[in-house]
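Internal QA ticket QA-208
Title: Verify multi-chain structure generation after dependency bump
Assignee: T.L.

Test input:
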Amino acid sequence: MIPAFLKRPSANRTLAGVLVAIVVLMSALNPQRFPAIGNLISMSYQLPIIAFLSLGMMVAMVSGGINLAIIATANFTGIVMALVLRAVAGDAAEEAGAGVALLAMGGGLAAALAVGAVMGWLIAYVEVPAILTTLAMMTLLNGVNLVITKGYTLSGFPEFLLGVGNGMLGPVPIPFLILVAVVAGMAVFLRRTRTGLSLYLLGSNPIAAGYSNLHVRAVLVRTYALSSTFAALTAFIMVGQLNSVKANYAESYLLVSVLACFLGGVDPFGGTGTLTGMVLAMVILQVVSTGVNLLRMDPFFIQALWGLIILVLIAAGFLGERLREARRLRTARLAQQAAPASTVGTGP
Amino acid sequence: MRAAEAVGGMLRGLLRHNETWLAILIVVLSAAITIANPAFLTYENVAGFLKSCSMVGIMAVGVLIVLILSGSPDVSFTAIAQVVEYAVAVATLQWGGNIYLALAAAAAMGVLMGLVNGAIVHWFRVPTIIVTIATFNIYFGMLYVITHGKLINLVHPMFHDFGNTLLFSRVSSIGASYGLSLMTLVWLGTVLLGWFILRKTFLGRSVFAIGGNEVAAERLGIAMLRTRLFAFGLVGLLSGVAAVVHLSIVQAVVPNIIVGKELEVIAAVVLGGASVFGGKGTALGAALGVLLFAILNNGLTLLNVSSYWYNVTIGVVITVAITNSAYQALRHRRARVHVKVEP
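Actual output:
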């Protein structure tokens, strides 16, 4: 069984090729430590955080917007969880059972959904541009997070939550299993549900979508609620892995999640972007970051490398497009020369 | 009667401008802060915050022009300023020189880095934000790779002299002199330059044309490459100047102090009425946006509000301001839809 995207030339096939090349390169550079089971497991621990943030960014981008508040929402979710825990269990939060932990997760999710609904409402009904709404929400939430935590790190989460972030089911980390389930859910959502399909219609042409009797505003509100749900998922994993929350964890991931979308072929102006492309892009980013980390490179060099990779991809994409265009023109011209009689009306 | 109508019409016309709303907000805010703490509206305090926001103000003019041009914000300008600041600080310590030379070198470096962005945006046809995220990472990452993030505590004394040049200076009761800083004048000069370019030059009109409708502008025969290189080069130049201004105010280099301010600058520009879709914006608006943030920051300090609340307040103000301007635009559009067309 070969997946459809590998059968003919496509952006995703190129991505798959890039992924294979990077894995081979990293394995060659570091044959002892990169292609090892332990490394595979540690990568599948780290992947979900970047993956959830990227997917949250993706839904906003496909609808033609962007969600700059996604990291702030994730931190806000974590902080609300800590507050709920403290309110319910007091000082005994660490010993709290699964029920209390689930309650905290519910509280966090509700907070994230509220944030998403407010942003969606502003974008859909007041028609504030998404980039501004989410920028404002980011600033506001960063402030709220700082006011609540006073800049301190809140730690001490119950066993159940730590299990969500760190646990293993056999040889597979639980966060990775959650990611797989979520990606499967997203595949169904984007292809088979009304809201999922509307998302693409809306992103490619909001005016046409409105005239096709699509409830554009409702779809937008749901989009940002969904985007915030991904922020909440990130928070669940992050809380579990770090056993703490803070006002400004993971801030550097904001640009990385935009990068993942760009890499995955999501059009920044909306309307296109496949889940396959996103998954490939996320795995590529994770492999590169783990690979260069294992080589003990300067983290700032890695940052510069990110930038360089984007530029190379931009150039490659552009040149690929040019080549395809040239080939198309040549074939068309050849066809015309071969059968001039049959192409009446399509002459120069 | 007619005079009253004319005045009313003028007022309504004024209220359509984002700058008017912003100015009203600034006046109301200043009045409120002054009532709470009379120290706000003193020459010393006003001159103080006008100086401290000059770097952001200078950058905002460049950011505005690129936003109008491409409808997608530049985010690499802080990295450019950071690199330039470090390079200038090191170079002047090594070779000396004077402030004009330092400014020229900083501007040249900035232009070079800006042109890279412009060239990539033009030739590869990619949104500005994507390209500048990439170059941001490259510039900033390489700065740390080369310098290992080392602080520079001692800078050439000429920056001290430049940064502390005062006009209309007075001496306070405790013997410290205060007055309008030269840095503020640099900012005002930049705003004037931005206004002049956008309103009075062909290049400026081309920037609006491309931002308004790229395809139409290209068919009209507007020089796309030249205009893009100009706009991105200008952001670079202003980032370079802003870096020297910052260096002169702070007189030390912390290699990640400017980086991270990009969203604040963009927010100030957008608050000033620039459209995030491009093709719209004014230099005055950008200056007022920066001023509003500076007043908020200063006011909160004077009111003894904990600095934790700063972001919350900024967030609320941005939300209110953008919601208001979006709402005004919405009303405007709705009003237009109801025009009856005669058959």
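Spot checks passed. Chain B touches chain A through 49 residues (CB under 8 Å).
Status: verified.
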